[in-house]
Amino acid sequence: MTRSVRALGVVSAAAALALGAAGNAAACNINEFSAEAKCEGDKGVITVTDVDPAGVPATVTVFLQNNGADIEKIGEQVVKGSKEGTTITFEEDWKPNAEYRIHVSAKPYVDEDIKPNLTTPSTPCKEDEETPSPEPTPSEETSAPAEESEEPSPAPSESTSESAPPADTSDNAPSPAGESNLAETGANSNTGMIAGVAAALVVLGGGAVFFGMRRRGANSQR
Predict the structure, then answer these.
(1) Are 33 and 58 in contact (CB under 8 A)?
(2) What's the rounded Cα separation, in Å, for the pair 186 and 195?
(3) Are the beta carbons of 86 and 102 closer than 8 angstroms?
(4) Which domains does the chain have, with CATH numbers?
(5) 205 or 184, which is more confident
(6) 124 neighbors 95 (Cβ within 8 angstroms)
(7) Rounded to the nearest 5°, which phi and psi values hold at 43?
(8) What are the boundaries of the region Disordered (predicted)?
(9) What pTM did the predictor assign?
(10) DSSP E strands: which ranges in the chain?
C-alpha cells in the first residue's frame, strides 16, 4: 500500500513537471514574433505580429539603429498574441535600407530581440516629386520674339536717308560774304569793265579840269 502511494506521488510529480514545462513552452516564445516594414499609402510603418496562442502580454519596443547602436526610440506597445496572430503598428516614415532593433519582453518567458534586425526596403513609400521648371520671367517673355526674328530692323540713319529726298545744297548752302552781294546784284562777271570805264571817266574829268584852268588863265591875261 505504501509503495503504491509513493509510486503514485512520483508519477503525479513527473506529470506536473511535464505539464509545467509544456505550459511554459506554449506560453510565449520569441519565435512567435515577427516584424515587417511596409507602406500605408505614402507613409511608412513597422508592424509586429504575435502568434502566441496563450495570449501572454508582451511589450514590444522599436529602436532605430546606426552602425550597431541605438540612435532613436521609435515607440513601445503591448501586444496579446493569438493563434490567428495579433499585429501592432508603429508609424515610422522610414528611410530606404534603414535598420531597426525590435525588443520583446514577456517575463518570465521572453526578454530578447527579434533576430535578425529589421532592414527596410530599398524603395521609399513616396517617390521624390520632380522639381518643376521655373516659369519665364516677363523680361524673358519679352525678349523671346526679338530672338526669333531673323531680319534686323533698319538703323535710324538708313530709314531716314531712304525716305527723305536729298537736300538742295545749291540754294540753301551759305556763300562767302563778298560773293553773296555780287551774286545777288549780278555784277561779279562785269567788274573789270566797270573799273576800266571808271578810270577813263576819271582821266577825262581831270583833262577837262586842266583845260578849263588854262582857259581861265589866258582870259585873265588879256
Answers:
(1) yes
(2) 15
(3) no
(4) 33-120 (2.60.40)
(5) 205
(6) yes
(7) -105, 145
(8) 112-188
(9) 0.49
(10) 33-40, 43-50, 57-66, 69-80, 86-91, 99-106, 110-113, 118-119
Between residues 50 and 1, the one the model is more confident about: 50
Nearest-angstrom CA–CA distance, 54 and 83: 8
Half-sphere exposure of 44 (CA within 13 A, CB side): 20
194-222: b (≥16 Cβ within 10 Å) or e: eeeeeeeeeeeeeeeeeeeeeeeeeeeee
Q: Which residues pair with 102 in a beta bridge?
A: 62
The mean per-residue pLDDT over the stretch 77-89 comes to 96
Distance of CA 200 to the CA centre of its chain: 102
Does residue 79 contact residue 48 with C-beta atoms inside 8 Å?
yes
Instruction: Give Cα 80 distance to the centre of its chain.
Output: 52
121 φ, ψ to 5°? -65, 160
